[in-house]
Amino acid sequence: MLLHEFRPGRLIVGLTALTLAAVFAGDLAGAWTTPWFGVVPVLCAGLGTAGFAGWMTYEIRRRRSARSRSTDSTDAPASSSGSQAIR
To answer: Of these four, 11, 17, 20, 79, which has the most CB atoms within 10 Å of its CB?
Structure first.
């Protein structure tokens, strides 16, 4: 059993942060030169991809839970009198 549910959006944000840290660590070590504005496209692409992955995960889980609720027959049956009004 898993300790927590898998969140791909958070994974992508973490990988983006690690990528940016590695880029600036290489710049600090003198292996290459990174312009300060080079962060913007990587950060925007990473956050946009993470947002999309989080949204898709939410939609998949919402549909999956709605599907399981629609097949659940443990509740009382609907009224057969034709009126669905609560009395």
So the answer is: 20
